[in-house]
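Colleagues,

Please find the record for the two-part complex below.
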Amino acid sequence: MVKANTLNRNNKTKFKRQDLVGWLVMLPSLILFAFFVWEPLLESIRLSLYSAKGIRLQEFVGLENYIRLFRHPDFLAAFRNTFLYIFYSLIIGFMVPIVMAVLISETVHLKSFFRVGVYFPNMVPGMATIMMWSFFFRPGNTGVLNILLSKVGISPQVWLNNPKWTIPLIIITMTWKSAGSTSLIYMAGISRISSELYEAATIDGAGIWQRVRHIIVPSIFSLAKTLLILQIISVFQILYEPLVMTNGGPNNASISLMMLTYNYAFRDFNYPMGAALSVVICAILIVLSGIYTKLTKDKE
Amino acid sequence: MFFKSYSAKKDGAIRSFDLHSFRVKLLIICIVVICAIIAFVCLFPTVWVFLASFKDIREFRREVTIFPSKFDFSVFVKTWNDLKFIKYYINSLIMVVGCVICSVIFNGLIAYVLGILKPKGHQIVTGLVMWSLLIPSTTSIVALFVNVNRLGLSRSFIPIWLSYGANAFIVVLYKQYFERMPADLFEAAKLDGCNVLQVFLKILVPLSTPIISVATIFTITAAWSDFLFPFLILNGTGKETVMIAIFSFRTSNATDVEVLRAILFSIIPPTILFLIFQKQITDGAAAGALKE
């Protein structure tokens, strides 16, 4: 009791001290966030306005790096490809997890096996996934897909070397890896639908397909909107797949904005150009994030 | 027998009262078959890597079969020794352990302050953390790399370890968990004379083991699979991790089957982790996103 009283009396003066203690406790974490997340964003902007030799800045050049960036043909290719990646990921990658979730929700037998099975690719490290699929897409007789095709009498394909197929095939690889984890989120959404809704709909004469159409689809709609934006944001940064599978080729057909950044900074050691491109990507991502925040606010 | 268990079905559009119709029974069987095909597609590539790794390079080039002619585990031992894989495993282990420690301590502390202590002005930090959730770190990799070099910290594990101490996703995960705890608990501990850090260590950490283990599992998988930042910092220093190693085998004179075995070695640890913690992992993956 005595202690509690003194605590109350000192409330006014102690208030400030407690604040200070709180800030001190999170100071190390704040420094890490500043160093690894926040400061690099500002540093990118500063870096992009200078010319440099290695990591040493030379002189202020204004927007010259940006002008050089936009005039370079690689930028146009990468910019166009990034939107192609997004386009194909919407066609291929967006629907697959929804369909998977709806189907697996309808099973009783082996359900936990299906859940674990579809999530497994997500545990395979990204680099291993990409190298594994490179063996599948290998042109010639030793490619796994060509082996499978030869069994049904179709001649070997060149897969990734065909510029028209490169991006869709890369998207298939990405979908293979990430669809399972996304579908688990949809499954959780579907399992939260109350049984009464289905019963009421059945009494009103709704068949199974109509129940899927009018109960399941609307109830995961807002989830789908959120996941769609998150998917676009993640496809926007695609880097490992073109880097490892195609090296951006054939003839720039699969080069992405992030891969171009990698080439500028870590192949040519032109850090200011890399930083300038990072700033451009970041600006686009901020706009997308703004849309995302607005969408999630609407949900509430 | 097969359809009997459908009477207890809780999910989805098909309900127990639909079962009397033959068409519905057919539909149910079709769905199970399609799901089996989906699961097969998800698992086949990894199984193929496993099977193909048993082949020798001649067999791999000439024989267009899925199954190898013989299962001889000594080829794995040989490749493990030839590629000196133990070194990469140890490097990856050092990296993962450091990343987990940093992740628990630093993300835990900031979540503790933002979720429970809430000092004046904490909203600003919360806003910044939520915002960094959406701007992924790959976009600032160039500036980060330059900064690390300026500080002379490259060629060491330290920047990689510390980078895992600033993970907005894990901060949010912890924060949501901490906020659901009863506030009286912390008041009582304070009255008992615990200082701020003692409350964290003696009350919060023991009560949060479920969320800490989920976050730790995700950190282990993420750190094990991490490529770009470790590659830029560690490549050519003798501290290469497994991911850096398999990336460089691609262009080295290692044969196809050796590369395949190396890929398999890189998949084994996360697979074991997944087999042990499959429930926590699949539940955590779904729950983390829904709460947002």
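The beta strands of chain A are 50-53, 56-60.

Comments are welcome before we finalize the supplementary table.
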